[in-house]
Amino acid sequence: MSSSGDRKYSSADFHRTPPRPQVVMPERLAHPQVEQEGPKDEYSRARKHPVFFVDLPSHAISMTIGWLDPGQSSNRHRHTYETLVYILEGEGYSYIGGRRVSWKQGDAVYVPVWAWHNHVNTGTTVARYLACENAPMLQNLGGIALREEVPDRGDQLGDAPHEPAEEGAVQASGAVQASGASPVSPDRHGSSEGASSSVRFAGGGAQ
């Protein structure tokens, strides 16, 4: 039988609820020098800027570090997990769901579930941010951690053609159809699945 930290439960395991918590000690408790290992190539290409992954055995939260050069923008994207972004250095803004949110070193920014967004460095030095997401929790629940990328800056696209089509876009299966592509796949943190320059939603046209 798998250890309690690795076990997958089903309806038949309803009775497996111990009366008190148990400590499950993983082998790894630290990830030294995250940024020195280099960015995740596939994910960084999809996001259009370097992104570094924290590799620790958390089941509910993830942590990533992003770099933006002066004047650089991430592409426009959205996902079904929510994100908190802490600005380690630099200044700029994020375009979130049609709203421009300015930030500088020491600020924190919230990105709601499924809101189109991108991040822009308006300073003269590299901007670095730390992002915390609940992606692993959704991944472990199965099939509901979705991510979608479009290779454009959100502030240049505007939200008028996009946001009104959101209502009713995600069906019960959680599938979102990309024009000329298969439905968006569950996010695996490191895959570039779901990248498309033209996205079609259920009940809406090409966006």
TrEMBL record:
MF (Gene Ontology): dioxygenase activity
Biased composition (Basic and acidic residues): 1-16, 152-165
InterPro entries on file: Cupin_2, GDO-like, RmlC-like_jellyroll, RmlC_Cupin_sf
Positions of the UniProt region annotated as Disordered: 1-42, 152-207
Top-rank taxon: Bacteria
Biased composition (Low complexity): 168-185
Swiss-Prot/TrEMBL keywords: Dioxygenase, Oxidoreductase
Domain Cupin type-2: 68-131
Gene3D superfamilies assigned: Jelly Rolls (2.60.120.10)
PANTHER family the record matches: 1,2-DIOXYGENASE PROTEIN-RELATED, CUPIN
Name of the featured protein: Cupin type-2 domain-containing protein
Organism: Chondromyces crocatus
